[in-house]
Amino acid sequence: MNPFSYSHPDSLQAVLNSVAGNEGAIRFIAGGTNLLDLMKEGVMEAPHLLDINGLPYNSIEAAPDGGLLLGALARNADTAYHPLVRERYPLLANAILAGASPQLRNMASNGGNLLQRTRCLYFYDLATPCNKRRNGEGCSAIGGITRQHAILGASEHCIATHPSDMCVALAALEAVVHVESARGKREIPFAAFHRLPKDRPDIDTSLAPDELITHIALPPADEYRAHSVYMKLRERLSYAFALVSVAAALDIGADGAIRSARLALGGVAHKPWRNAQAEAMLAGNRPDEALFGDAADFLLQGAVGQGANDFKIPLARNAIVRALLAATEGTAMNTGENND
Length: 340
Ligand code: SF4
Fold this sequence. Notes:
It contains twelve helices and eleven strands. It is an alpha+beta fold and about 350 residues long. Among the domains are: about 5-50; about 225-330, CO dehydrogenase flavoprotein, C-terminal domain (Enolase-like, domain 1, 2-Layer Sandwich), CATH 3.30.390.
């Protein structure tokens, strides 16, 4: 590991003042569950680590509009087990508990979950070129080992996937990311937070280098509470990233018809994958396996494998149908909790 300095300011102003003008030399650290690995491997360097754990962003609070405000520094475990999250957003609780391990969830922060980097093998292997590590070097995954890689939204420069489970649920719930810098505050809709790789795979998000995530706002979603499912398919049940995951939420009326639907995929692209038209296909219809298959086909339009990951296309179709059928049956808590 390269040498680095460390500070632990206890006010937002002190943090923002430290960052202004020093963006390239400073990295924020909260749980550190991904950043420290990356620093130890030499994938990322941080001349100065700014510990933000002293800031007052570790609470989970009800919002006046009926939604929730998740502090960026609240731990993933505290979020997943919080009574308001479990009651109002079981989709999110289940997605968080499907990820990582209990130890990691105890340490990892909500803001850090959004900012975790891909687990592409080549990204971590300094002996191989990688455009995400250093743009312009080339992509070693293309033509290489691609079992975990993208089938949607990839580019000739990068075919990596985003590793988060939590973010797939946040995409389906249309969360809003609140950020702050010395230049002021802004809110980023979740769909605009993560980027597709295009010709700059080294840039994962739309967050500016001087911006700090303070909160993640969840809009009210009571209509989806009774019929939401997070389904994660992976190589093994313990401590593995998704080959494909599905966040499915249905608003089913008293007449048995779907009023609206949310559907997001993980493990298939550089960001959680949604398609508003696929969701609109479900509205106004009764839950039905054939209908779910049609929506899955629409959502997977344009999917392309790299050979070794071609199986993800039918796997994703089947997972979407299964998740929607399960959501129709009703929400079940902690269906995929990883306790190992
Ligand atoms: Fe790097 Fe992306 Fe290619 Fe992986 S897929 S080697 S992260 S450029």
